[in-house]
Model the fold of this input.
Amino acid sequence: MQKYYDDLIASARKGGIYLLTALLLQVALVNLAYAQTRTVNGRVTSLDGGLPGVNVLEKGTNNAAITNSSGQYSIKVAEDAVLVFSYVGFLSESISVVGKSTLDVELKDDVKALGEVVVVGYGAQEKKTVTGSIVTVQGKTLEQTPAVSLSNSFAGRLPGLQALNRSGEPGSDVAQLLIRGKSTLGTSAASTAPLIVIDGVPGREGFDQIDPRDVESISILKDASASIYGARAANGVIIITTKRGASGKPSISYSFNQGFTTPTRIPDYADSETLARFQNDQLQAQGQAPRYTADQIQKFRDGSDPLNYPNTDWAKATLKNVSTQSRHSLSVRGGTDAVKYFVSGNYANQEGIFKNGINNYNVIGGRSNIDATITKNLKIGLDLSFQEQNRTFPGIVAADIVKSMWRNYPYLVDFYPNGLPGDGVERGDNPIVMASDKAGYRKSKTDIYQTRLSFDLNIPQVDGLGVDGFVAFDKNSEQIKEFNKPYSVYSYNATTNVYTANAARFYAQPQLTERLNYKSSLIGHLKLKYVKAFNNHKFNSFVAMEFADNRSNYFSAQRRNYISTAIDQLYAGGEANQVTDGSANDFTRKNFFGRINYDFKGKYLVDLNVRYDGSSAFPKDKRWGLFPGISVGWVASNESFLKNDFMNFLKFRFSWGKMGNDAIDPFQYLSTYSFTNGYFLGDGKVLNKGLNQNVAPNPNITWEVAKTTNAGLNAEFWDGLLGITLDVFKTRRSNILTARDASIPVYTGLKLPLENIGVVENKGFEIELSHRKAIGNFNYSIRPNMSFARNRIIDIDEPENVPEWQRRTGHNINSGLYLIPLGIYRTQEAIDNSPHIPNTMINDLQYKDVNGDGKIDNLDRIRLDKSSTPEIIFGTQIAVGYKNFDLGILLQGQSNAWRYYWFPQGLFGNVMQEMADNRPSADNPDSKYPNLTYDAAQVSAQTSEFWLKDASFLRLKNVEIGYVLPSGFLKKIGISGARLYVNGFNILTLDKLKWFDPEGDADRGSFYPQNKIFNAGFNITL
Done:
């Protein structure tokens, strides 16, 4: 047809009517072309499921579209068009649309090219040229986890990254993140936490509340690759990259999911009958009369008198069967060659698990990433984001509520028939009331605003030379309001039939505290870069400078003695004993750094970087530090003598780097003072506050230094049937801040400053395997991984008289001292013929006399390398696809982890059913447990290895089943793509502990239970 019209135009030219005829024919051609178009719909997939962000281009034109989050697309093209499907890391496909309105495409991995781009510090590299130990995960993968906190999506997916979920409390259920375990003696979260970088800006807050659907990718820098961040990189670096715009028509996506949560595990505590028998046994063993008669125990058993002889299941009475959570996400993505944009908004809500409780958390956020091409050589970007987090907690902390729930006797009433609350185990410890607003509330509102203005300038006069930079300003504010209210509980006298009100032990009068914490951060970054390729050589280099100014202000006020709880405002409180407080902080950093990346023939790779850091936290002569890093790689598979049919890729890597950790209290080199509580006479008439000098200053304080060595390899065989990534590492951390108090006698009264005297060594390895295959419409992939990291204290200040078996040197950072149990005494003769603790009874624990002095005391405790931080973590990701169905499974677990538990048993609190069933008794002379005593001073309650429990586990962490609706059906209702899915989180846990969730970290189980989530949702794209 086109040839026919071309011939007509040529004839018209010869006939002398060129202008008019040509114009008419061109108009006709345009109309004909418009009439001969069709809309093509389809889905682009890989072995891992739908591919978002694939570029779909009509060949020979600028007409393009991009796939949505499910891999679906829709594009209007000419009848005889050819569509080109392209995506980094995959082989491009060109397919004719003739006779087709639906076109599904599966892109194959570009195994030989391995062209996937990996985000590294201050840049990006092709995966095949990366020489550091870096692992990545795509935002699409993280969407499979229904947890609201982003960090809870990491566990089991990334070798070397520990994501330990210690609590399930809404708003506080973030995971503790550790890269390659712990390498420092610091106990605060900041001292061990990795550096978080969001869209190139280091140290940003609020990453846990980022919507996974806003995330493009996350990179974890574990070795010398992190040294480009210098004094903040010793704990590793996590780089989060959010989505940006792409050329094509606007793609509007909306996602919604509704989740239902329940605790992962609730321990089974004894009922009233069991506890009554148990307490009688306890008392008789101590030579006392039993507390309950057989008739009373019978009433507990048959429930004939529930008012006076109740059988309360406190967990069931306190906790809901099911709570809810939900999330909404809306985004628009698109643009032209001139302006590209990604704009999103999200809202998430979590309910607490307490009945009548006031636990609630919600977060609303928005993001706008805009990139504009101003000229051929100049691009600018403007990123804006905000979060508003709202938390509501009971006035009494969750740990106390949960502890009360486990401790309460089952023969106490939760609520009397007339609706009055029972008084609980100790002065008002009724967990149902404690979790309600009757005890007051704690509310917090956190606002996080983040901005980034960037530019990228290409200098045309010098090929490959450019300048880029950004200015980022963040502002965070947190408002906290805590209103503590007294409440009453009731006791019942069966003789007089009178209910007596008892004031709870927490607060005698209402008390209000308000706090305001404001923080701001200004970061400027300027970089001169040079990228050049010639012959077989490729250079990618830059030099940069950065400055950061961080400021904070804190204010608090408190009033007590409120007349009533009707008004929860400061002005309504009493003026006597009111308290105000405030502080401010100003902290700056300056940095100069650079990198040279060299690639020869794609075989020999070298990456050199260096950073010169300065921090106002340290004295002038200790303020600056040099942090170099080097990594090299050899792509052996590109050597002619190693080329073969089965090995697609083989790369060896080696790196060494020096990094720092400045997460300390700043200005310890200055003398500090504090006001005394008392007042002193000034001129004899006026009372003045006094000043006391605090810890002596340390003029030599500086940052910790970590020197890390890493050797690794990456390999792919048989076109993806087998993939291997292996890393072996060693980190030596020196200059660790610790006190020298251990070598100073206590009687001196001296309090010394922290000094850079500690040394810790951390060693381990990581391995990840992969296997994937496609058979017709069926495809699957399996990716197991395992990491091992073991730390040892090399040097720490310890008194010379500490026994060798109790010294910290040579042991794990979190090691503890424990008596070693030898068994349970079954006879008095065995007690009399062995060293023992005074007042030891039959069925008490027998301990090892370590120093052989004939007695058991604190000198017999041995330091054991057992802590709640696991040395081994592992996970397996499984992905299965068949036509429009997909299945994702994540297994996750840990080993070489232990948790110490101690419970005040029996007489001063309830006892777990399993312990009661296996306690010493006349019917159970060879009991599993010793005497379950009620006081830490009792023999069997001593801190011993007996109560140190294996916290290893294997967890079915995540399962998701999804279905992509057929595009033909969706087209009829004006939708370009839609996917339905159901998923679950923490579905099943296999472990030896059985009592509590093995990730919990409190010796009485007094942590808010972790969540098990069942979730359903959908996402649609217009």
User: Anything to note?
Assistant: The mean pLDDT is 88. The chain is about 10% helix and 45% strand.
